């Protein structure tokens, strides 16, 4: 095994470790933040950034074409489906009154909801 | 086994341990979480952590055996939290929150 392949392997392992650290930090943020919206802000770090870095590390260690395509598909679908769930959770949190309104500078949704009723 | 490969193994085992610790903390969040929406977000992050853990295992063993499972989790992992946010959380309120004037915005009359 040449030196460059070994460097790729070690870089991949280091990326996987970095992604795992970001996942852990995001979960710590979910434990400590006080609100549904701020918790969902912390929850996007493992979902998008941490997982993409882990997938990049796996791609650096498994260097064949089919595996790279599958990893790209995994990252693509994760990025597609994450915002849908986040949007629906935040919408439901607003409409059930679990949003701290004192922390908001602008609240356009409030005016629109009041206007309809 | 050469020294760089030992370094790789140590890094990957540390990554798996970190993901396991994150999963345990996330279970505490799902257990405590004052509303169903917190649990829904926790389920999303749980799917992401499973994908990351399977990725670390694949990088450790250098086999793509678990990639289809990761793909299915990435596609379908959000359906549970969408269902909770759409159908369960509008009926479930955490106790002890002042509603007052905000009560007219509640989800019951406008789901």
Seen as an oligomer or otherwise, the chain set is: heterodimer
Distance between the termini of chain B: 60 Å
Strand content of chain B: under 5%
- The tally of beta strands of chain A, per DSSP, is 0
The major pleated sheet of chain A works out as:
none
What's the alpha carbon Rg of chain B, rounded to whole Å?
20 Å
Biggest sheet layout of chain B: none
Low confidence ranges of chain A: none
Low confidence ranges of chain B: 97-111
The arrangement of helices and strands of chain B along the chain is HHHH
Please give a structural write-up.
The complex is a heterodimer of chains A (117) and B (111). With 117 residues, chain A is an all-alpha fold. Chain A has one domain. Chain A is built from four helices and no strands. Chain A has helices spanning 3-32, 36-61, 65-95, 108-116. The longest helix of chain A is centred in the C-terminal third of the chain and has 31 residues, at 65-95. The N and C termini of chain A lie far apart (70 Å). The mean pLDDT of chain A is 87. Chain B has a domain at 35-92. Chain B is built from four helices and no strands. Chain B has helices spanning 3-32, 36-61, 67-76, 79-88. Chain B is elongated. The interface between A and B is large, with 61 and 61 residues.
Task: Itemize the secondary structure elements and their pairings.
The complex is a heterodimer of chains A (about 120) and B (about 110).
Chain A: H1 3-32, H2 36-61, H3 65-95, H4 108-116
Chain B: H1 3-32, H2 36-61, H3 67-76, H4 79-88
């Amino acid at each position: 095994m040449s030196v460059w392949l070994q460097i790729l392997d070690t870089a991949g392992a280091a990326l996987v470790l970095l992604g795992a650290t970001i996942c852990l930090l995001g979960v710590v943020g979910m434990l400590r933040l006080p609100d549904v919206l701020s918790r969902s802000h912390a929850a996007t770090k493992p979902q998008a950034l941490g997982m993409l870095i882990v997938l990049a590390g796996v791609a650096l260690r498994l260097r064949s074409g089919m595996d790279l395509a599958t990893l790209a598909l995994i990252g693509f679908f994760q990025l597609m489906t994450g915002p849908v769930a986040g949007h629906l959770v935040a919408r439901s949190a607003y409409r059930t009154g679990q949003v701290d309104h004192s922390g908001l500078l602008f609240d356009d949704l409030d005016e629109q909801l009041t206007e309809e009723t | 086994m050469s020294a760089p490969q030992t370094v790789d193994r140590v890094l990957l085992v540390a990554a798996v341990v970190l993901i396991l610790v994150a999963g345990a903390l996330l279970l505490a969040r799902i257990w405590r979480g004052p509303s169903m929406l917190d649990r829904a977000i926790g389920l999303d992050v749980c799917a992401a952590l499973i994908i990351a853990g399977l990725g670390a295992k694949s990088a450790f063993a250098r086999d793509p055996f678990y990639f289809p499972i990761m793909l299915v989790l990435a596609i379908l992992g959000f359906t549970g939290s969408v269902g909770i946010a759409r159908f369960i959380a509008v009926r479930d309120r955490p106790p002890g929150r002042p509603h007052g004037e905000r009560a007219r915005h509640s989800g019951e009359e406008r789901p």
